Amino acid sequence: MTNNEPDFIVESKRLCEIAGMNPNEIPRPDTILTSSELEAKKEEYDEILSVVSFFSNKLLDSLKGTPILVGVADADGYLLKVEGDETIRSTIEQFGIFPGSLFRQEDTGTNVISLSLDQKHPISLIGKSHYHTFLHSTACYGTAFRYTDNNNLLGSLSIMMPIEYRNPLFLTMLSQVVDSIERELLLRKQNKKLNIMNQIMLSRTRNGIVVTDENGITTEFNDFAQKISGTDKDDVLGRNIRESPITGSYFEELLEQEKSFSNEILKFTDENGDRVICLFDAQPIYEEEKLAGAFGQFRDITERYNLQEKYNYLAYHDDLTGLPNRRYVNIETKRAIEELQSGESSSLALLFIDLDRFKIINDNFGHTCGDHLLIEVSRHLKKYLGENDILARMGGDEFVLLLQNFEDADYVTRKAEEVLQEFRHPFQVDDEYLYTTASIGVVYYPEEYVSLETFMVYADNAMYQAKLDGKDRYVVYSSHSLENMMEEFRLEADLREALEKNEFVLHYQPQINNTTGEVVGVEALIRWQHPEFGLISPGSFIHLAEKNGLITRIGEWVIEEACRQNKKWQEAGGRPVKVSVNMSTQQFLTKNTITLVQDVLERTGLAPEYLVLEVTEYMAMEYDSSFLVLEKLREIGVGISIDDFGTGYSSLNYLKQFRIDYIKIDKSFVNEILHDENDAIIVNAIISLAHNLGMQVIAEGVETSEQLDFLIRQNCDVTQGFYFSKPLTADDIEKSYIRPQAPQEGN
User: Fold this and answer.
1) For a tag site, which of 2, 186, 388, 443 has the least CB within 10 Å?
2) How far apart are alpha carbons 394 and 371 in whole angstroms?
3) Which of 314, 340, 331 is nearest to 456 (CA)?
4) What residues have CB less than 8 Å from 258, skipping those under 6 apart?
């Protein structure tokens, strides 16, 4: 060893000594690949070997006349290829140095392959720098090569020669060769990535792609181009794009004049005879500022183009139902008004159709089901279109029938009646049969001019009046309708001050035990003592309170007043009864419902068992939020009643999980139990269901002794209705039903 040797050579020789290697014995590689293993590895390394061989052969050519041997090894140290001087090659083969040999320092000692792979810089092993004496007559130079983008080691390139030919310039030449190899390998890697990305782009894009060379010869034609044009790829590749009957003229200008094209509309017929509409873009491809080819792409807009061509589809039609939308019907109505004013048209009317209870269907069956119902409704409504009529969806669950040039006014109301009759049949949505009715506003265009906006407002007001009148009907707009609407607007304004002015009162309707005949409860029913209109029933203002957000505050007042009054009766020695209070959906689903009830009971001193809160089926079936609220109310000790049972969309699976005290049969069933066998069966089933679930049944709306007798025979627990009493004031209910009990004898 010499003192001026690099540290890595010194360390390598030290390890050879520690391993007990004899410097005078020729070590042979312990691992040698079989012929098939070597071929497999060379195949795996094929692209790298081809690049390395190209540049190493250039090195050999530049050093002709110099006895030199070039070796290529992979990243593990396997010698893959040896080229150069035959004399040196045959000599080293005697020592086991040939392709397939694995060079590891622990097997072969200090060698140029192992050290060049280990070091991050070119190395020289000259003469006695080798550990083994048989190599002292040689000079070796080596360096590793990598993918320079991620420093991934690929292998090493080394040269070997007799020591008398040693020259430091060889190391510089070797470094330059490796630099060329690394740049070429990186370029190929990047081109491969680019090619992969191009292939992905060509296969994944939904556009047709065409690429040509500078002469116009087609080099790329992807699957979408094939599909859009109906032309087989094999018939296009290799042909001059100028020959294309579709795009040839565009590419001719592009290649001759280097002209670009954007959003050109191409129209042609495919192999099935169908018209195809495409947007076409094309631009030159440059390489170092020289024209290298052309790029073109097609975007199939056939469907969109056809729909835009007819009614400007995207802007004027509803995506869900395919019907004309609000914008379209507004334009058509405005046009119809102008024609009517000019005498070109004889008549004009609107049917404004709004589905009843659609929100309940949406909430209980899901929005997808609701969408499918709207599609079915639109399909059924189309049946009633006359030659000059237009059906449109205004949004949500609102539809409009625009009727024009009809001969008599009855045509319009007949249409309304036909639509109502259609809605009295169920709509099949998937496996469900859904029932919904419609409220229809009918408006004839008046003799005097009114604007489009006013005409639409008339129709909307008439529809709204139909809802107020009980739904499932049509209302023809009149000036009287407008007066009613204006009155309602005034009511809504007054409603905002009614709480502060203490204008609300409660009336109470008794609930009678069918076994004992005694009153067991009362239902609290709100009334509005309006200073101008007198006593107003809840049907005239509750919907307004729900619309303007006052319903929660009003509901809180009702609970407190009912509890206060019940406690007052008890303190006066009256018969202990339960007081039932209806809760609105908005109030029931607020976060402070539990706190409110607890605070009211505490303030009024009423025991919780004397308060019953009534919720609808719909509210109870809001399972995620309702279950927790109902459970906490039961923990407080408050009674729970399901109101209007049988009119909603109950899930019996949910119902059995709620701890409900009472089920109230809706009066619509009670009205018909003596005349409709189905209603009688339903009432009997409800009573049996409730009793099996440990609940009591209250029937409301009892008006005759025959109805009462029927319910008693079916074991209904409690009844209420006009047969016993209409809702009474607190004083009247006390006098008639909750009068103080007579003192017991001896007291």
Assistant:
1) 2
2) 14
3) 331
4) 284, 291
CA 29/CA 108 separation, integer angstroms = 6
* pLDDT tens string 310-320: 645 667 788 88
Q: Quick check: helix, strand or coil at residue 547?
A: helix
Q: How far apart are CA 580 and CA 589, in angstroms?
A: 18
Q: Which of 472, 474, 476, 485 is nearest to 355 (CA)?
A: 472
Pull the structure tokens for residue 65.
């006349």
Q: Within 10 Å of residue 15's Cβ, how many Cβ atoms?
A: 15
Q: What is the dihedral of CA 541, 543, 547, 548, to 10 degrees?
A: 20
Record the tokens describing residue 54, joined without a space. 């190209």
Q: Which two tokens stand for residue 126?
A: 């000259």
| Structural element, H or E, at residue 209 | strand 208-213
The mean of the pLDDT values for the chain is 85
Buried b (16+ CB within 10 A) or exposed e, 208-234: bbbbbbeebebebbbebbbebbebeee
- Mean pLDDT in residue range 175-195: 82
Paired sense of beta strands 696-699 and 718-719, if any: parallel
Can you tell me which residue has the tokens 């002709």? 64
Determine contact, residues 259/296, Cβ cutoff 8 Å.
Answer: no
Lowest mean pLDDT among 87-96, 309-318, 644-653: 644-653
What residue spans of 222-301 are helical by DSSP H?
Answer: 223-229, 233-236, 248-257
**Pairing, β 504-513 against β 728-729:** antiparallel
**Cβ proximity of 718 and 699 under 8 Å:** yes
Order of strands, sheet of 138-147, starting from the edge strand that comes earlier in the sequence? 79-84, 69-74, 152-162, 138-147, 123-126
DSSP string spanning 376-433?
HHHHHHGGG--TT-EEEEEETTEEEEEEES-SSTHHHHHHHHHHHHHTTSPEEETTEE
> Per the structure block, which two tokens stand in for 287?
């390489």
Structure pTM?
A: 0.43
Instruction: Report d(CA 39, CA 556) in Å as an integer.
Output: 89
Q: Which residue do the tokens 């310039």 mark?
A: 169
Is the CB of residue 341 less than 8 Å from the CB of residue 409? no
For the cut 70, the answer to whether the pLDDT of residue 556 exceeds it is yes
Chain centre to alpha carbon of residue 622: 22
Domains of the chain in sequence order: 7-195 (3.30.450.40), 205-305 (3.30.450.20), 318-477 (3.30.70.270), 499-738 (3.20.20.450)
Identify the three-state secondary structure at position 202.
Answer: helix
What is d(CA 547, CA 527) in angstroms, rounded to the nearest whole number?
18
Residue 348's SS3 state is strand
Which residue from 259, 272, 276 is spatially nearest to 224, judged by alpha carbons? 276
* Band of pLDDT at residue 309, cut at 50, 70 and 90: low
pLDDT digits (tens, 9 = 90+) for 210-225: 888 999 998 888 877 8
